[in-house]
Structures are given as structure tokens and as C-alpha cells.
Amino acid sequence: MATTSGQKPPNSINANNSGQNESSGPKYVVSKEELKRRLSPVQYSVTQLKSTEPPNSGIYNKFNREGTYHCVVCNLDLFKSDTKYESGCGWPAFHSAIDSGRIKLAKDFALVSSTNLLLLAKNANLVRTEVLCSNCDAHLGHRFDDGPKSKGGKRYCINSASLRFEPAIKKE
Description:
- This protein is an alpha+beta fold.
- It is built from 3 helices and 10 strands.
- Strands 1-6-7-8-9-5-4 form a 7-stranded antiparallel beta sheet. Strands 3-2-10 form a 3-stranded antiparallel beta sheet, with no helix packed on it.
- The longest helix is centred in the N-terminal third of the chain and has 9 residues, at about 40-50.
């Protein structure tokens, strides 16, 4: 059963203002047991354990149909197909979300460890920007600043396993 609870980690940042902390937690919360029953092992690992599917392995990487991409955990609509583009990165890439309020951004220090902490001072790229669903905090992927300049310069590199595609309804 879904309930409202939880707190955002202190490293959460607002999608519109990368330095501004947010304080509200996820709106949709479901037990880990329920998610393990409902999601595939890869979907669970990506959305809950923040893993990354291998490049060029996801079903939506070279997928080009008209419609909407939803969060696989809570079904929130996140990205429209007209914002998807071929970036060559090996994962589905979008230049923007449906609305900035649909996603949350957080600093991701996963590449930083005690052995490479000194490298952080020389290479700020070790800290990535994680993309999360704003409704359930599912890990979706990462945002980079190498997207199409004409579309704002952002690349949302999203794991296929975190998404569910809903085709557009054809109007007659």
C-alpha cells in the first residue's frame, strides 16, 4: 500500500536551481517487498539500488515511437518522445522532462571514494547529477551538460529499466 512518508536526503537539489535544497519527501511510497514482486530484478536494481544497466542494452535506447515515458515504479509521466534524441551514449537521452517538477536532481558521489577523494579537487566531473522521479524517488539516471545547445544544453541519460512507455493515442 502506498503512503506518504520519508525525507529527502540533504544532497537533493531543485531541477530548476541546481544549488537549492528541497525538503519534501516522496509522495508515493511502497514497500520494498511489494516492489520486488512487481518489478523485474533489473528494474528493482536500477530504481531502488541506483545501479545502471549496461550501455546499449535497454529496450528504449534505439526506440522511436510517439508517446510518453512513465516511471516504472509509480507511473508518473516523465518524458515525451519528442524530447528524446540519439546522443550515442548507449542509453535513452532526453533534452528535457515534461515538467521540471516531475523530476528531482541530486548530487551523486558514487564515483568518489576514499581512494580518489583527492581527484575530486582536480576533476569536478566525479560528482554527477542524479535524476530521480519526484513522486517516488526512483533512480532514473543522470543529467549531463552536453545536450543539444538549441534545447537548453542538458542531456537526461535515463535507464530503460526505470521507464514504461505509453504510446500516443492516434487521433482520427
